[in-house]
Amino acid sequence: MHHHGYLWAGPKERFDNEALRRPPYPEPPPAGSRPELIQRYREVSAEFPTVDLPPLETANWLIKPRSLIRGTWGGAKEAAAWLGERLAEHAPRFTAEAERDTARLASMVTSAEGRLEEGGDVSYGFYLERPSFLSLAVVTCSPNRSMPEQACPLR
Questions:
Q1: Tens digits of per-residue pLDDT, 98-116?
Q2: Greatest CA span in the chain, whole angstroms?
């Protein structure tokens, strides 16, 4: 078991494009469906696996290109430390003052380490200035609890 870290920061409007943050339905629309529905299905099928937007389900990061992985760690402690570093780096830009509290952030890192040790995934999101959004995730790999059949993106 190991862990992959992911980070995305960008415009909130782009983050809000949920169609590109969820995988397409397993089956295409039935024959005779509206042309715009068929076209949208084709777009999402082509773009979801490659778009850099954070997926709605954390484990779906494993479907994304390996170039989006920001770090890989064999231990939960190291992966949680990476999260802590990213939180400290971005905290001055959090729009909510309460989210900048260092004790709160330290508690989040400790909690993340525990979940990762148990084989879970961790995903945090924060609104930043301008309005932007920050998504941080650490996904347990080989296997992932939610997607045990998904191969490691580094293999």
A1: 999 999 999 999 999 999 9
A2: 57
